[in-house]
UniProtKB/TrEMBL annotation:
This is S-acyl fatty acid synthase thioesterase, medium chain. It catalyses: (9Z)-octadecenoyl-[ACP] + H2O = (9Z)-octadecenoate + holo-[ACP] + H(+). Its EC number is 3.1.2.14. Gene3D superfamilies: alpha/beta hydrolase. SUPFAM superfamilies: alpha/beta-Hydrolases. It comes from Hymenochirus boettgeri.
Length: 254
């Protein structure tokens, strides 16, 4: 359990756990620190996937099913303790959605709310038109990384550091680019679903996410590019919106 979860700010009295899924190549530190922005009603669990940080000696997952299998197996006891919600950015949007669907289908449980960010819906046709970044050379991949704003310049200009960053990024890109979801006749989820995105990011098919739940659906656009969420002002807005939806969902849940 501890190998999967990074929780820097324990909140034993929290009514809800917000479980955060990393972006492609990402670790657990960002969301673990993000937890300080929430009040004590929310406890943040940041997921640490195989092949990075303290799990650097473990092999990278090859498929989305492998990721979902581990998360559901290790998290299930915690998910039974109290209500929970999922937040995922980019690659994390797909991983959080796939995990939510697995929980619904296999255990008849689902998050209070699903928050997705910086990604088209998994069944959207727009995904097939996107260049497969996992096929890029290291040089071109680094150029792409420099445009997204998520990697510090000191890392982009340090080849030793890049050799640690590129493998998990490539592995995650390969997983998400081979993740295919065929939308069923009926929405697979009933929870609320909120999309966040940057106004200057490449356009994403956000409206298609509405097909995947019978619950409430919302979209919030915030200023910035793909990593708009790292801007301190946007962080505060994300926490404000997310907290509001969790509070509303909790009231309905009770």
């Amino acid at each position: 359990m501890d190998k999967l979860i990074n929780c820097l700010y324990r909140q034993p009295s929290a009514t809800t756990r917000l479980i955060c899924f990393p972006w492609a190549g990402g670790g657990s530190i960002y969301y673990a620190q993000w937890a300080r922005l929430f009040d004590d009603s929310v406890e943040v669990y940041s997921l640490r996937l195989p092949g990075r940080e303290s799990r650097s000696q473990e092999p990278f997952p090859q498929t989305m099913d492998q990721i979902v299998d581990e998360i559901t197996h290790l998290l299930l006891p915690k998910l039974c303790e109290k209500s929970f919600a999922f937040f995922g950015h980019s690659f994390g949007s797909f991983a959080s959605f796939a995990t939510a669907v697995r929980l619904k289908e296999k255990y008849n449980m689902e998050p209070l709310h699903l928050f997705v960010s910086g990604a088209s819906a998994p069944h959207s046709r727009s995904r097939s038109k996107t260049l497969k970044k996992s096929d890029l050379t290291d040089e071109d991949l680094i150029k792409w990384m420099s445009t997204t704003g998520g990697t510090p310049k000191e890392i982009l200009h340090n080849m030793d550091a890049l050799q640690m960053v590129l493998p998990p990024l490539k592995a995650d890109l390969n997983v998400v680019e081979n993740f295919i979801y065929d939308k069923p006749a009926n929405p697979p989820l009933t929870c609320g679903l909120t999309c966040y995105d940057g106004t200057e990011d490449s356009p994403h098919d956000l409206e298609a996410w509405k097909d995947l739940t019978s619950g409430e659906f919302n979209i919030h656009m915030l200023p910035g590019g793909h990593f708009y969420l790292k801007d301190p002002a946007n962080e505060k807005l994300l926490v404000k919106y997310t907290s509001k939806y969790l509070e509303t969902a909790e009231i309905s849940y009770l």
